Amino acid sequence: MRREELLAGLRELFLREGFAGLGVGELAARLRCSRTTLYLVAPSKEQIVVATVRSYFKNAAERVEARVAACDEPGLRLATYLEAVASELQPASEAFYTDLAGFAPANEVYQANTGFAAQRVQQLVVEGVEAGALRPVNASFVGAAVAQVMSAIQTGEIEAATGLADAEAYRQLADLVLAGLA
């Protein structure tokens, strides 16, 4: 089994069930490989988790950007981006998010990706404003505001306050931002 195949299996498993309660032996058994083969991903369980989480966000970002690149309308690129982010987060279970929050190295990967997402929102706002497709706004402010909400989604504050899972919270954020920029 190649490393990428292992990562794909780990991503699917972690998104469905989380990772905190799974030992290396159980991971190997569930993926139908040996522990030695599993260690091709990384030399320890903690590093396997981080590599898998990093792989998940990298693959998700590539799919999101592909959807944005396919959108020719500057005014719709921001909506496409936020909807794509929500779609990519949809398969992740509550257990996955709980484990992310509880394991600092994986949480750092999530936080970094949230930061990248906020920067990307800012870029898309600038593009939309420059094209005349979005009303003139301070893109830095929009990016900072979106970053705050994304961070609150990531930490579970939004879910605690609203009951919305991360993917649905991103959809609601998309609606809010787009209504404000129309």
Automatic annotation (TrEMBL):
Q: Which UniProt keywords apply?
A: DNA-binding, Transcription, Transcription regulation
Which Gene3D superfamilies does this one have? Homeodomain-like, Tetracycline Repressor, domain 2
One short Pfam name that applies is TetR_N
Which InterPro entries does its entry note? Homeodomain-like_sf, HTH-type_TetR-like_transc_reg, HTH_TetR, Tet_transcr_reg_TetR-rel_C_sf
Q: Which residues bind DNA?
A: 23-42
| Protein origin, superkingdom | Bacteria
* UniProt keyword Cell inner membrane, yes or no: no
The residue ranges of the HTH tetR-type domain are 1-60
Keyword Plastid on entry = no
Name of the featured protein: TetR/AcrR family transcriptional regulator
